[in-house]
Design a protein that fits this description.
The protein has 826 residues and is of the alpha+beta class. The protein is built from 31 helices and 31 strands. A hairpin with a 5-residue loop joins strand 6 and strand 7.
Length: 826
């Protein structure tokens, strides 16, 4: 810092003779500086201290007589004294003109002179010769007070009769001054419900001299009542007389609220677990069971107390008890998952076979918390056949057969053909016929899933009557079947079989007194055994089946070379989609989600649409899989999110935006960063964005995908699980991630209100949403009776053609500005 020069002439601060004589008589140096930090007066002690005359110093600053570092510190404290008006005291080092270093105790304070002039008055005590501890005592006291102010526990003192005489940092207790708390004034701040207990405990301590430890609520000046914990111990004389009470008080409001939240979470878990169709159990870190769900207690007849600890072992069949105990002890010692089958003794007599599966639980810091597990009643399965043999056969059968019709599936067909191919003479012809049902979806939608399932079983039965004993009939998909025939003599033989299949399937059906007609198309391929693999043969038959669709019901087509032109067309679609994305030919449309409590638009879901310049409108069901297959889904998803966020800033502030994420987008570790960048660039509020995922996101690479979901949610974005109820373990997902919204798959709404099964599932989802505090949404609402039902069940939102189809951005803006939907009350 450059040295400041005093002006050639400057007036000293006027002091009368008496005052100046008094100040000169003071042994300690006294300085007076103006607002510009220039010396206006120095007593004789100050001049002697600095080794200069008063005339030499008047008008100077610290920079004229002290090293720069010392002058900087002096200037800082002068400024603090002038700006705050508080007395500033500190110990500092000072270098004299002769080079000696002195230790000074300096006091600075602001003063006002005549003519409204403000100065800072400095007095100095040379403590160089005094013990250093004594010189720094004020500093240590100040540090102690600072530590007291910073500590969460606040000290207090009370006299032998219990009156509060001193308390540190009282403002931290409940935003009150100490005068509002001292004596017995603190009593009026205690919550009325806690006051009696606090008085009783304090009185007991005063009478007996025992320590005090109690929790209570104190009234806060700003936040109602807060929870505190107070502790105290008596200080006694040598004769045992209580001299005073030393105590600490601590704000524990956050801990109490956290504990209450934990209790609420536990109660919520117990409510869900008690309604689960499996027996649920939980242990602590020692291996002692501390919870069994209601189904366990009902099955075994035990009470919760009887089952606790190792008491649950008494409910196990005596022949299995030792084996089970050893197995669980081994799993607990190793902290590894366990899976056991054993018998439980039923309360009403007899026994039940259960499969018990347990998993270790760990805290975020890796601490072992115990085990959680489920026990599933498998009595019927065990009684039907022996032990694990039946389970293996069932798993093997289910993996290779259709659960509805009992027909083999594609996997069975491939494995069986592998076995048969060793017995087939080279040069023998084989044929694959692929059948597609025409009009099945319309029947299924019109009459419900149960009718559709019955119709599929009837079709399978008719197809069986058309086959040779050596033929293999399979179900490949919802409404697709395939037949493998070996030893084909001619192509005409296969054509005749195709005609027979069509005639048989297209005969009218009578399902539950309902006449139904169904069409069928056939595509087939014939080849020598050595020419093609079975997979390739099925693929060519599928190509022929696609060509038969153009002819409508009753058409059969044999594969011919060149029919796979549609594969080339799909490749062209990939190129066209890439070009459409680059040329901004895609459009985002918006379908509203209606709040069923208010009738107003709660959210718009962003849906991408593509109108090809030559091919016209292309369904997302066709081009989205192409985008996922080619790797374009990342760029496409990012474009949709950016366009939708920009558009959403035009909507009323109470309307949110929903955007779907493809599972393949989670392959990018930068997904959360991309979302954050789009929010920042568009100005869209994170809290108004909902990202919808399907359950496959959690099935595939779930740990990494969960971390990405947490990163996105930490941005303030809401996460919804879409198509809920169609996946492998939907309920499990609600446990491992705190979703903000559940969207029930439209397949459960289509059959309402007629399907009891769908109604039960919808009702269960609504109950789960209420229990967990999650918004529940249904999609696919198309009729008034469906709307009435989901409103009655307590759903929060609904979406479907009943309200509106997807619409362009401008129409969506107009739609959002309307008053909403008026519900028709029954």
């Amino acid at each position: 810092m450059e040295k400041e020069h005093k002006p050639s002439t400057i007036e000293s601060t006027p002091f009368d003779g008496l005052l100046e004589s008094i100040l000169n008589a003071v042994h300690h140096p006294i300085f007076v500086k103006d607002e510009n930090f220039r010396f206006r007066f120095l007593n004789e002690g100050a001049c002697t201290f600095l080794g200069r005359t008063r005339d030499d110093l008047i008008g100077c600053t610290d920079y004229d007589i002290r090293p720069i570092a010392e002058a900087d510190r002096s200037r800082e404290s002068d400024g603090q004294a002038l700006s705050t008006g508080e007395e500033i005291s500190h110990v500092e080092e000072f270098t004299t003109v002769g080079g000696a270093v002195k230790t000074l105790l300096t006091h600075k304070r602001r003063a006002r002179l005549e003519a409204e002039r403000i100065v800072v008055v400095t007095t100095i005590v040379d403590v160089t010769a005094q013990p250093r501890a004594q010189a720094y005592l004020p500093i240590h006291l100040e540090q102690y007070r600072a530590l007291v102010d910073l500590h969460s526990q606040i000290p207090w003192l009370a006299n032998p009769s219990g009156e509060l005489v001193e308390i540190g940092a009282s403002s931290k207790i409940a935003c009150y001054d100490s005068d509002d708390i001292l004596g017995v004034k603190w009593v009026r701040l205690v919550h009325p419900d806690d006051l009696h207990n606090v008085k009783r405990q304090w009185s007991k301590s005063l009478e007996t001299g025992e320590s005090l430890d109690t929790e209570f609520r104190l009234k806060s000046a700003q936040e109602g009542y807060l929870w505190f914990r107070a502790r105290a111990a008596a200080n006694r004389s040598n004769g045992g007389t209580i001299l005073r009470w030393y105590g600490m008080i601590e704000n524990i409001d956050d801990q109490r609220k956290a504990l209450e939240g934990l209790k609420e979470s536990e109660a919520r878990f117990r409510a869900i677990a008690d309604d689960a169709p499996v027996m649920i159990w939980v242990t602590d870190e020692t291996g002692e069971d501390d919870y069994h769900s209601r189904l366990w207690l009902e099955t075994t007849g035990q009470t919760a107390g009887q089952a606790a600890g190792k008491g649950w072992l008494r409910a196990i069949h005596p022949d299995d008890r030792k084996r089970v105990e050893e197995g669980f002890d081994r799993a607990f010692s190793r902290r590894t998952p366990i899976r056991m089958e054993y018998r439980l003794q039923r309360a009403q007599g007899g026994s039940a076979w259960v499969i018990d599966i347990g998993q270790p639980r760990f805290a975020m810091n890796g601490k072992f918390l115990g085990f959680v597990g489920i026990a599933l009643d498998i009595t019927e399965r065990r009684n039907a056949e022996q032990e694990r043999l039946l389970a293996k056969k069932q798993v093997h059968h289910m993996a290779r057969h259709d659960g509805l019709t009992g027909l083999p599936n594609r996997r069975f067909l491939l494995e069986e053909f592998q076995v048969l191919s060793e017995e087939i003479t080279p040069g023998t012809k084989i044929a694959i016929l692929c059948l597609g049902l025409v009009g099945f979806k319309a029947i299924n939608d019109a009459y419900g899933r149960a009718t559709g399932d019955l119709l599929l079983c009837r079709v399978a039965a008719r197809l069986r009557t058309c086959m040779n004993l050596s033929d293999i009939l399979c179900r490949l998909g919802d409404d697709e079947f395939a037949i493998l025939r070996i030893g084909v003599k001619s192509d005409d033989e296969v054509r005749n079989l195709a005609r027979l299949l069509i005639a048989s399937v297209e005969e009218p059906y009578n399902l539950a007194e309902t006449p139904v007609e169904l069409g069928v198309i056939v595509g087939f391929a014939v080849a020598l055994k050595s020419d093609q693999s079975l997979d390739e043969l099925i693929q060519t038959a599928d190509i022929a089946l696609d060509h038969s669709r153009a002819g409508g019901s009753g058409t059969y087509v044999q594969y011919e070379p060149g029919m796979d032109a549609h594969i080339l067309a799909r490749q062209k679609m990939k190129v066209a989609l890439r070009r459409a994305l680059a040329r901004n030919e895609l459009e985002v449309q918006y379908q509203p989600l209606i709040n069923l409590h208010t009738g107003r638009v709660a959210t718009f879901e962003a849906l991408v649409r593509w109108t090809h310049p030559e091919l016209g409108a292309i369904s997302p069901a066709d081009f989205i899989p192409v985008a996922e297959e080619t790797g374009l889904i990342g760029a496409l998803g990012e474009w949709i999110l950016r366009e939708a966020c920009i558009e959403a800033t035009r909507w009323p502030p109470d309307i949110s935006l929903a955007v779907n994420l493809s599972p393949l987008q989670f392959r990018s570790q930068e997904l959360a960063a991309t979302v954050r960048a789009i929010l920042d660039a568009s100005g869209q509020q994170a809290s108004r964005l909902q990202l919808e995922i399907t359950e496959s996101v959690l099935l595939n690479d779930s740990d990494r995908n969960l971390e990405i979901l947490k990163e996105i949610r930490n941005l303030g974005v809401k996460i919804a699980i879409d198509d809920f109820g169609t996946g492998y373990s939907s309920l499990g997902y609600l446990r491992i991630f705190p979703f903000d919204k559940i969207k029930v798959d439209r397949s459960f709404i289509n059959d309402l209100p007629d399907s009891k099964e769908c109604l039960a599932i919808v009702r269960a989802v609504a109950a789960i949403g209420r229990s967990l505090g999650i918004i529940t949404t249904v999609e696919g609402v198309e009729h008034q009776d469906q709307l009435d039902l989901v409103r009655a069940e307590g759903f929060d939102e609904a979406q479907g053609y009943y309200f509106a189809r997807p619409m362009p951005a401008d129409r969506a803006l107009e739609f959002s500005q309307r008053n909403g939907v008026e519900f028709v009350e029954n």
